[in-house]
Write a structure and sequence with these properties.
Layout (H helix, E strand, L loop, with lengths): L11 E4 L2 H6 L4 E6 L2 E6 L8 E4 H12 L7
Length: 72
Amino acid sequence: MQSRTPSESEFTGWHKPEASQAQGNGCVEVGYAPGHVAVRDTKNPGKPAHIYTALEWNLFLDAVVNGEYQHI
């Protein structure tokens, strides 16, 4: 059974990655809800966040760490 996807208002702990803060021009914020991660664009706050399951987010992070997106 698949769990329901939380609404954006249910996400807490929104924060910007350190690299984004250092540049000062904003970028993305990440928020958390049980079993899910949301990512939103700080320059376009009216647009909806992209919501991923914890598994999807962890697979993405693993791919980044392993260099699978170096060509982008």
